[in-house]
Write a structure and sequence with these properties.
Elements: H1 2-49, H2 96-108, E1 113-119, H3 131-140, E2 144-150, E3 156-162, H4 168-184, E4 187-191, H5 202-208
Parallel strand pairs: 3-4
Antiparallel strand pairs: 1-2, 2-3
Length: 216
């Protein structure tokens, strides 16, 4: 019995020894494998961080292009044309008859605004937009009035022309302007330069419909 107990104890010690040895062996194997992976990882990082001497140097990168500006280009200025002759200011903006009539209109209609040398295109309503409007503006701009009378709200009251001697062409121009003003509901007043209205006649002539005084 004593021998059997001794054998059992020896067997138990042997088993425990084997278990400890096996555990240590496996632990050592795992540590060796972990060390190997760690070493390979360090080698990999070193090879990635260092370029072999035999490897060709990378090509020089092209210089960065300048940033593209999307700003709108500046409007091109037309070339300055040299004048063919010296240009000077007119001696008078209005002639003698025009100046006299302007002063009569200003004094006779102090509650109105007087404008000189106004085109027909500026006082009649034209199509809002498009090619038709441009055509009308080009057609009517050459036709001028000596004066245009407006109220304080800038509503056109009348157009005033000084009569001039002329042939059929002048008569045709006057009739063309008169027809346009009639269609627009604007009064046209023609003044004889040799029989200018008196200051107290101006209001009735331009606003009230009094006829212009006849030439003597």
């Amino acid at each position: 019995m004593a021998w059997a107990l001794v054998l059992v104890m020896v067997a138990a010690v042997a088993i425990m020894g084997y278990a400890v040895w096996n555990f240590q062996k496996k632990t050592a194997a795992r540590e060796a494998a972990a060390q190997q992976r760690f070493t390979e990882l360090l080698r990999g990082q070193g090879s990635a961080g260092e370029r072999p001497a035999s490897s060709p140097a990378p090509a020089a990168s092209a210089p960065a292009s300048a940033p593209v500006s999307h700003a709108a280009p500046a409007a091109a200025m037309p070339p300055a044309a040299a004048p063919a002759a010296a240009v000077t200011a007119r001696e008078r903006f209005l002639g003698q008859h025009e100046t006299l009539l302007y002063l009569l209109l200003k004094t006779g209609l102090p509650d109105h605004e007087i404008f000189a040398n106004v085109s027909l295109a500026a006082i009649v309503a034209l199509p809002a937009s498009g090619g038709e409007r441009e055509q009308q503006v080009r057609r009517l701009t050459p036709y001028q009035f000596d004066f245009v009378v407006c109220d304080k709200n800038m509503h056109v009251i009348a157009a005033v022309d000084i009569e001039t001697a002329g042939g059929a062409d002048a008569a045709g121009i006057q009739q063309f302007k008169a027809d346009y003003l009639k269609r627009a509901g604007i009064r046209l007043v023609r003044v004889n330069p040799v029989a200018m209205p008196k200051r107290d006649q101006v209001r009735g002539l331009v606003v009230g419909g009094s006829p212009a005084p006849a030439a003597t």
